[in-house]
Amino acid sequence: MRLLLLAVGQRQPAWVDAAYEDFAKRFPPEMRLELKAVKAEPRGAGKTAQQMMAAEAQRLEAACPKGALRLVLDERGERASTVQLAKSVERWRGEGRDVAIFIGGPDGLDPALKASADEMLRLSDLTLPHAFVRVLLAEALYRAWSVQAGHPYHRE
Q1: Strand locations in the chain (E)
Q2: Nearest partner of 40 among 15, 61, 64, 60, judged by Cα
Q3: Higher pLDDT, 66 or 45
Q4: What is the pTM of this model?
Q5: SS3 (DSSP) at 48
Q6: CA 141, CA 44: separation in Å to the nearest integer?
Q7: How far apart are CA 77 and CA 142, in angstroms?
Q8: 16-39: pLDDT as tens digits
Q9: CA distances (Å), origin 81, targets 6, 43, 60, 87
Q10: Which of 20, 24, 41, 62 has its CA 20 to 30 A from that of 12?
C-alpha cells in the first residue's frame, strides 16, 4: 500500500523537505509514503481563484493513480484523533488500495475535486501554512502506523 500526498506547490523551504523526508523514510516497505507535488497555477494574469483551483485540480488528478482511495484535506473534514487515524490506516490497508491524500494550494481545492473524495479529513481547526501541512501529515500518518504496529513511538 502507498500513501500518496498529492500536493500543490513544488518549491518548499529546505526545512520542510528535510522534515518531510525524515518521516517518509521511517515507513515500512509495505506502506510507503510518497509525495507527488504539482505546479501551482501562477497567481494574477486576470485568473479567478476558481480558474486557478480548476487548473491545479487537473494536475492533481493526473498524479492520482486509478483506483486509489481519495482523501481530501479540508477545514470542513472530519476531526480525527491519532487512534482514530490509526483505525483508518488499518481499514485502508484492509482495502488493499493506494490512498491519495489531496493537499490544495493557496486557494484550496477545487469543489469538483472535493466532491470526488471518498473521505474528508481536517488536520486542525487552525489555518496552517501549506508547507507545514506536509510535515504535520507525514508525522500524523507515521504515528498512526506506529499505533497499529505496536511501535513505542506513540504513548498514551
Answers
A1: 2-8, 32-38, 69-78, 99-103, 119-121
A2: 60
A3: 66
A4: 0.92
A5: coil
A6: 35
A7: 20
A8: 999 999 999 999 999 999 999 999
A9: 22, 35, 27, 10
A10: 62
